[in-house]
Amino acid sequence: MRVAVIGAGTIGGAVAKALSESGHEVIVTRRNLEKARWLEEYGVRLTRDNREAVEWGEAVFLAVKPNKVGAVLGEVSGLLDGKFLISLAAGIGLDYLKRLAPKAKLVRAMPNIAVLVKESFTAYSTDLEGEDLKTVEGLLSSFGECLRVEEEHMDAITGLSGSGPAYVTVFLEAMVYGGLRVGLPREVAKKASLQTLLGTAKLLMETERHPAEVREWVITPGGTTIDGIFELEEGKIRTAVMKAVDAATKKSRILSRKA
Fold this sequence. Notes:
Blueprint: E1 2-6, H1 10-21, E2 25-29, E3 45-47, H2 50-56, E4 59-62, H3 69-76, E5 84-87, H4 94-100, E6 105-110, E7 120-126, H5 130-140, E8 144-148, H6 154-162, H7 164-181, H8 186-207, H9 211-218, H10 224-234, H11 237-258
Parallel strand pairs: 1-2, 1-4, 2-3, 4-5, 5-6, 7-8
Antiparallel strand pairs: 6-7
C-alpha cells in the first residue's frame, strides 16, 4: 500500500522503517527533515507537507503527540474520506477521531519502540471488519505481534506494553550495574544481562509456563538464587513495577479526558 506517516519522531520513524521494509511505499512528514534523513536509506520519502502526504497515501498513521492530534486532523480531515486512519497517539479515543475525521476508516493502536526491530507488541481497537480488518492487521503485523482488544483496555495497554520497554531497560541497566559491582567487565555484564532477558522471554513464550514456574526451576534450597530473590522482595520490586504500570495507565486516561 501507499502509506503516509504523519510525524516522523521516535515511534513514527520506527513505524515508517518497518512498513517500508515490509514492502509498502512510505512517505513521512516532519518539520525538521534533517532529523528524518536516516529513513531515506530505507526508501522512505520525506516531506514537511501533511496534506501532500495524506492525499498520496491510502493509509495514514498519525504519530504525533496527543495535544497535536486536533490541529493535524483539522488540517487534513477533508483528505481522509475512505482512507485508513491509524492513530498511535496515547489516550486519543475513537470517538474523538470520528468527530474530526468522520469518513475515515478509524483504528486506535499502541505499538512500542521495539517496532524498530519488528518485535513490537501492538494492541489495536477498531469497528472495522472483513477485508478492511485484514488490511489493518497486515499493516500492524509489520511491527511484530498485534492483537485486537476492546477500546476500554487501550489506556492500560499504553501503561503496560507501550511504556514497557522503558521499565525493562531500567531493570536491565540494574542487572548490568550488578554485574559491574561484583567485578565483571562491562561488555560481559551487558551481554550476559541481555541474553538472560532474551532467553527468559523466549522460554516463557515457547513453553507457555507461568513466570512463577520458571522462577521455581531456578531456585534451589540454600542456593544462590534465593538470596538474590530475598533482596528483590525486600526492595519491593514487584510493587514498584505495578505502580509504574498503574501510573502510566492513569496518565493515558487523563489524556483521554483532555481530548
